[in-house]
Amino acid sequence: MIAALGSVFLHAPGATANANGLQITGLGGASAPWTIVVLLTFLSLIPSLLLCITPFARLLIVFHFLRQALGLQTTPSNQTLIGLSMIMTFFLMQPVGAVIYDTAVTPLQAGTITPLQALERAGTPMRQFMAHYVRDKDVALFLELAKEPRPHNVQDLSFRVMLPAYILSELKAGFQIGTVLFLPFLVVDMVVASITTSVGMMQLPPVVISTPLKLLLFLMVDGWHLLISSLMRSFN
């Protein structure tokens, strides 16, 4: 068993044998310690990258608005909403990830480019994706704050400007969708509150009556289907 594992390891990419024994090289021909440092750093930055360069923030904001509009405090749970946001994010980012894999990851594994060149290649499709949803107003703001010259096209924008502008645009879009989603349920709350007050039901909180009505309304119109379809189409 040990001999078989040794033979597999010797034939794996990045492992070479010479007269002095086994020599392990990292990705792109770099040293193994530096490759490990880069990979561990990247893994620690994945949560931040998920928020900064993907639609995850917009989706999660809308789902939290929905929960508050329905009058539910813990249902669906935070873990459920985060998991749903991650699945939707993976669905939306899969084409971009495929391009990054073909243009950056595969050549890096083959050793034809360096890790820095792979990062540059991976940044191009990400910049193109974010450019579709970033607002010119936000880009102009961070260009002014960074004191950078106005670029000729999107490819000339630095990530120092693109990332905060994209996050700000996503926050605005999430709050806009969440506010529109909140209004129909607010009308139900107002109607129930006015009816209970007019009939003298002062001891019964209106939320006790309005919450089941809002849930019935949400289920009758197939709310989850409408919400997810609208969110997915907002990224087209």
Any overview of this molecule?
Strands 1-2 form a two-stranded antiparallel ribbon. The chain has one domain. It has 236 residues and is mainly alpha-helical. The radius of gyration is 25 Å and the shape is elongated. It contains 9 helices and 2 strands. Helix 3 runs antiparallel to helix 4, helix 3 runs parallel beside helix 7 and helix 7 crosses helix 8.
Structural class: mainly alpha
Give the SSE order as H and E letters: HEEHHHHHHHH
Number of strands: 2
Q: Radius of gyration, rounded?
A: 25 Å
Strand content: under 5%
Which spans have pLDDT < 50 for at least 5 consecutive residues? Answer: 1-28
Average pLDDT value? 78
Key traits:
236 residues, mainly alpha, two-stranded antiparallel ribbon, elongated, cilium, plasmid, protein transport
Question: What is this structure, in a nutshell?
Answer:
It is a multi-pass membrane protein. The chain is mainly alpha-helical and 236 residues long. Helices cover 73% and strands 3% of the residues.
SSE arrangement:
Elements: H1 2-10, E1 15-18, E2 21-24, H2 32-52, H3 56-70, H4 78-110, H5 115-131, H6 136-146, H7 159-198, H8 206-220, H9 223-233
Antiparallel strand pairs: 1-2
Helix pairs in contact: 3-4, 3-7, 4-5, 6-7, 7-8
